[in-house]
Amino acid sequence: MLIKHYLALFFLLFISTPIFAQNKFTLSGTIRDAGTGETLIGATVRITGASTAATLTNNYGYFALTQPEGTYTVSVSYTGYAPIVKTINLTKDTKLNEELKSAIDLAEVTVNANNRKNENVKSAQMGLERIDMKSLNSIPVLLGEKDILKTIQLLPGVKSGGEGNTGFYVRGGAADQNLIILDEAVVYNSSHLLGFFSTFNADAIKDVSLYKGGMPAQYGGRLSSVLDVKMDDGNNKEFKFQGGIGLIASRVKAEGPIVKDRGSFMVSFRRTYIDLFLRSSPDSTVNGSTLNFYDINAKANYKINDKNTIYISGYFGKDNIGVKDLFENNWGNVTTTIRLNHIFSDRLFSNTSLIYNNYNYTVRLLNDATNFKATSLVRDFNFKEDFQYFSNKHTLRFGINATQHRISPIDIDSDEASQVNSLTQERRYGIESAAYISDEWAVNEHLNFLYGVRLAAFSLMGPGNFSTYDADGNTLSTENVAKGKFHKNYFNLEPRFSVSYLFNDENSIKASYNRNTQNVHILTNATSSSPTDQYVLSSTNIKPEIADQVALGYFKNIQDNNYELSGEIYYKWLQNQIDYKNAAELLANSNVESELLYGVGRAYGMELFFKKKFGKLNGWVGYTLSRTERKFTELNDGKYFPARQDRTHDISLVGIYNMTKRWTFSSSFIYSTGNAVTYPAGKYTIGGQAAYYYTQRNAGRMPYNMRWDVSATLEGKPGKKYQSSWNFGIYNLLARKNPYAIEFITDPDHPGKTAAQQTSLFGLIPSITWNFKF
Amino acid sequence: MKKLIIYFLLFTFCFTGCKKIIQIETENADPQLVIEGIINDQLIDQQIKISKTIGYTEANVFPKISGANVTVTDNKGNTYVFKEGTTPGTYINKMKGVPGVTYNLTVTAEGQTYTASSKMPNAVKMDSIGVIKNFFFGRERKTAAVFLKDPINETNFYHFNLYVNDILSERFYVNNDRLTNGNDLRIQLFFKPPTTDHDSDELNSNDKIKIEMECIDSNIFDYWYALSQQSNRGPNQGTTPANPTSNISNHALGYFSANTYQMLSATVK
Asked: Burial level of A383, CB count in 10 A (0-12/13-18/19+)?
C-alpha cells in the first residue's frame, strides 16, 4: 500500500511541473582538465541572468542547463582549478565545452573556496563522501602505499575491520553489504594481502564516491553502502609517465593520446615484492615461499564524434601466497567494462555498458597424502542502460540493468593417491534485473528533492538440485530444476527519497529514506573474513536481505565555505540477516543452506564531521556514536546482541600541513571502542581440557584501538619537466599494541587461574617511497 | 590458510613482544551442571563424570557432584546402574558397549533430571601411527599421524586424543569423511602442550606418543567440531565462541557418547 502511494506521489510531483515552457534553450557541454583532457566529474556550472540555475557535470563530465532566452553569466568551477567566467547570449541551444586549468599548472593563481562552493549544503544528496584524490596522496598509510579504502575508513560512519581483517563496515552493515564498483564492474574482494592493501591502485583512480545512505536509484544490490570508483581516462594531450618505488611495492603508469583531443589510454601496474626478501634466505623452504600481489588497470577512450564516445576499461589483480612443498593459494578479481556514451539531444544523455567481472581463488595442497587443488569462481555478465534527462528544474535519471551470476562454490581436483576425493559442487545461476527512475528536482532556492524508485527482481535459475530444510537441518524436499528454468523469483520495490531545505547558502537540513535489497551473500562463520569466503545467491531458504534507512542531517558552512560542519543521525532496520549454527560446515558442503540461521538487525548512530577545506593547514575531525545489533531466535536466548563491528565511539583526526611549496606534513589519528566479542563467564573441563562457558553473545569488548600515523612529503624542485617526490612515513608512531586476537591461557603468574593473552600484528613501522612523474 | 599468512606477517613485522596479558571485563556466571559420559567397547569401568562450572576468574578447582542417580539403558532391554566410586563425582559400572546399540543416559542430580542417548558406531581400526616431517618456514617439524582405512559404505566420525610423554595435547582432534570417504587416510595431529612455551610443541627423538581413537556418532562429532573451530577459544580466531550443542537435555553442559576405543603408542625416532 505504501509503495502504491509513493508511486502516485512520484508521478504527481513530476507531472505537476511543466517541463516544456516557451523560449527556453539548452546550454550543454563537457568540462575537462586543460592539462590532461580528463573529464571533470562533479564540476559546477552556474548561470546567472534572467534566472539563476546551477548543475554539476555527470560521470562523463557532461552537463546541460535549460533556461529562458536571455543573456547570462556562466561560471564553471571545480576544486583545485581556476574557475572560468563567461558571458553567453542564450538565443538558441548552445554548446559550452570548457577546459579548466589545474592549480598545479598555474604557479601563482590562488585557487580558493569559490569552487563548488557550498555544494555539500545545497544538494539534496546526503550520506555522500567524495574523496579528494589530491589529499589522498598525503594521508599517511601502512608502508607508504596510498590507499582509498584506508582513507574512507577515516570518515565518520565507516569502520575498518581492524588490522588483519578484510573489509569495512558502513553504518552498522556487514562487510559483504558494500557495493564496490570499479568503472561499474562489481569488485567482490576489494583487498590484497588480507586487507592490508586495497585492490585499487590510487595512481589509476580518478574519482571515488561513497554513499552511506540516501543511495540514488541507479545503484542497487547491496544493503549498506555504494563505493563508486572510477578509473582515470588517460591524458589526451601528451604522453606522461609516472611511478613510485616503495619498501614493499612499486608502481608505474603510462598514459597518452590515441588521437590528440579525441582519445586516450592509461595503463598502470603495481607489484609487491615482500617475497624478494624471502628469496635471500639461504633456507630452501623459505626462499621457495611466495607472498606477493600485483594489479593492472587499463583504460582507453575514443570520441567517435560529438555525440558518441566509447570507453573500454579493465582491471586484473592477483594475490599469491605459498610455502614450498606445502601449499599455494591465489585469488583475484578480473573486470572488463565497455561503455558507449551517446548524446541523443542536448538534454538526453545515455550510457550503455557491457560488463564482465569475476572473482576466483585457488588453493592447492602439495602435501603428498592430501594433494588436491580447489577452485572457486563468482562470475557476472552485466548489461546497463542509463539515461539522464536534463530539464529546467529536473534532472531525470532512468534505466535498466540485468546481471547474470554464476557461482561455482568449489571444485576439488585430486589424484588417485590423495586422501581427498574429487568433487564438483553444483554451480548456481541467478539473474538480477532492475529498472529505476529518479528525479533531482530543484523546486526553488530553498527546496531540493532527489527521489526515485528501483524495482529489483531476482531469479534463481536451473540447472540444479534445490533443497529445503527443517530447523534441525534435515532435508525436507529436493527439486530438480532444468537448465534455463526459474526456480525461485523475488521482486522488491526500493523507494529512495532525499530532501534538502536551505535556510540560506550556508545552512541546510536534509532528510532521506531508502530501501536496499541484496541477493548475493557471503557465508563466513569465522570472526574475520578471508579470501576463501563463500558466495551464495538468494534461494528458497535464503531470503533477500532488506535494509530500510532513515537519516536526518544538518549541514553548515562557515567563513565562505572554508569550514564545513555536518551532523547526521540515522536508523536502519535489517531483515533476513544470516548467522550460523554451532559446528556449521560451510566449505564444500552442498547442503550449506541447512547450516544457516536467519534473523533481523538494527543500527543507529550519530555522525559529526568538521572539515577545514583550504589553507596551509587543512584536514578533518570525524566522530561517530553508534550501535549495531542483531537478533536471532536461536542465539543469545532470542535477544538482541551487538554485532561484532559494533563500536560505541569512533574518532578520526586528519591533518595536512603544507609548510612550504616543497614540504607537506600529515598526520592521522584514530581511536575506536574495541570490537564486541564473546568472553567466557565460566569454565569447566571436557575431554581433559579447559573449556569455557558462555552466557551473553558479544557482551564483552576487545581493548580499544588507537593509532597515530604521520608522514612527510618532499616535492622535487618545481617547474621542471621531470618531477619527483619523497614520502617518509611512520605507521603507529605510538607503537601501541592494538588487539588482533585474544586467547585464554593458564595464567603464567597464578597457576590454576586463567589469563587473557592478546596478540597484536604491528608495532611501529617506518616507510619510504620515491615517486616520479614526467 | 589465513593463519599461515598471519604467522608470516608476525614473523615479518612483529619483531618482539606482540603478545601480552590483558585484563578483560566479564561476569562470573552461576555454576552450571556438566556431565561427561562415555560408554566404549572395552570391558572396563565405564565412567560418567558430573561436575559444575566455576567463574572465569576463579582458580581451577571444579566442584564434583556427589549423590546423583545415574542409569544407562540400552535398546536391548539392559539397565546399568552407575555407582559413585572412590573418586567423588565419577560414577562407574564395569560393562562393555556394543557397536550398533543405542545407549540412553538418565542422571538425576540436585533435583533435576537429565537424559541423553547415543548410538555406538561400528569400529574402524587405526592401522598404525607414526611421525611425519613437515618443513615450515625453514623449520623441520615432526608431527604425529594416524593411518587408517575409511570404510566406503558408511559415514564415519572420528575423535582422537594425543599424548606426548603422557601429556595430553590441548587441542580437539576431530574428523569426518565428508570429503575423504573410502580412502586411506593419514591424519596429522599437531601437538599443543598445555603451556604457552613455543619450543615445546616440537616432537623430539625418544618422545613417547600415544594416540587414542574413538569412532563417534554425528552429534558427538558436532560437539567436538564446534570446540575445535573455536580455536584457542578466544575472540577473533575461529568462529564466534558459543557453548557447543550438547546431546544432553535440560541445559546441561557436556556430552554423552557411546563410542569405540583403540589406543596405539610409538616412540619418535
From this structure: middle
